[in-house]
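Kindly go through the entry underneath: sequence plus fold tokens. Please state briefly how this chain folds according to its tokens.
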Amino acid sequence: MKLLNDFRLIVLLCLTLGLAPFFPEPHIWGKLQWIAGGAKGMKLMDWFDVLLHGFPWVLLIRVIIVKLTTRSNA
């Protein structure tokens, strides 16, 4: 459980796995644009890519929310 709350590790995951491959644009950004455009032609592998590259970002949002709510309650 400690790994899921390690801010530095999660930021590292976001900058590596979350953005890889970096050129011509981050992979997750291309997939999100594809989904925003209606996701026509997306196959199961494309949805898996969204899950794989998006998971570090979900963890980052979660850890930020946890840090903000625990600080305000302390």
DSSP finds three helices and no strands in the chain. Residues 8-73 form one domain.
